[in-house]
Amino acid sequence: MSIHPLNDFQPTDVWYTVCPxxxxxxxxxxxxxxxxxxxxxPVNLRNVRTHEDRSVRExxxxxxxxxxxxxxxxxxxxxxxxxGKDVRVIGLSWVEHYASLITLPGSNIRSPADLxxxxxxxxxxPNDRIDFSRATQLRGYHVALKAGGISPNDVTFVDLTxxxxxxxxxxxxxxxxxxxxxIIGVRERQSVLIRALLEGTVDALYLTGAGAEVQSxxxxxxxxxxxxxxxxxDRVSNLTPVTFTVKGELLDAQPDxxxxxxxxxxxSAKWARENPQDAARYIARDTAIPEEAVELSYSPKVIHxxxxxxxxxxxxxxxxxxxxxxxxxxxxxxxxxxxxxxxxPLARARELVARELAxxxxxxxx
Length: 366
Fold this sequence. Notes:
Layout: E1 12-18, H1 24-30, H2 33-38, E2 43-47, H3 54-57, H4 59-62, E3 68-72, H5 75-82, E4 87-93, E5 99-103, E6 119-124, H6 132-147, E7 156-161, H7 183-198, E8 205-208, H8 212-218, E9 221-225, E10 242-247, H9 248-253, H10 255-274, H11 276-287, H12 294-297, H13 312-327, H14 344-365
């Protein structure tokens, strides 16, 4: 039982992309659920990751591709909206993750208060339009320095340059995951950070998510753990909140397609809660980390944090991120949230999934 028959959709090329983060949509794609739902409809699902044209692959960040869904970090959609792109937020989720400032043993840095006069590594990607990694690190440093009573002017930020564009080449042809990056690219970017710390180019690094592996590989100590902060605003980063978006032209022209795609997030999140071990394997594959590192890089509760919502506190955290990006010059222009966030697709998707569950229950009783 459904709100709309899939064969009533208009013939449409629909594009999708997902970040290498814990994502219900990524799991649904990995299990073939979304593809199966649209298989007998006029909707043609296409992944920007595998396209031969770099400008199409770049839409993972700048969201210029028409009819595009994206679930992942919040900095690119904020940037795209500030550039005037018609990007709409249709869901948010809060995925707790590793977020720590690390130093090597023997550095005599034991807390953020010891960072005065020290060199902090700051990733620099000159050949990417949106340097979300730099923005994420800088926000983490600001939070840590504030905790130590130190101004950003009291430290030296050292550029750690990574010149290879993230989508300069198509992904590995045999990649199993639908997420935007493969394991080779992740390891290459990590190597820049590892070398800087071990060679003494920097005294400290702020790392998130899969950065937990960098701490393990270097034997570094954690001197500040933002993930344990009692103030949720201290934990705002590119992954908190994870942002689920769609291009406005698809939402306006074919809202039922958007409803069905959002419903896939809800169904997949429910499946993950019911199948935690299998879900962890998908998360490991999609984020290019070992399965055993899922809880370390994210949280023991990550399986319960995948379902998208539009709770007021999550919207507030997204606004906090926007204000920081504006203040630091990562966004060129401000914009209103009134047209940026659209709650209607999520409301319709919840109704659709509720009807499906009611129909299943009725069938089982009968």
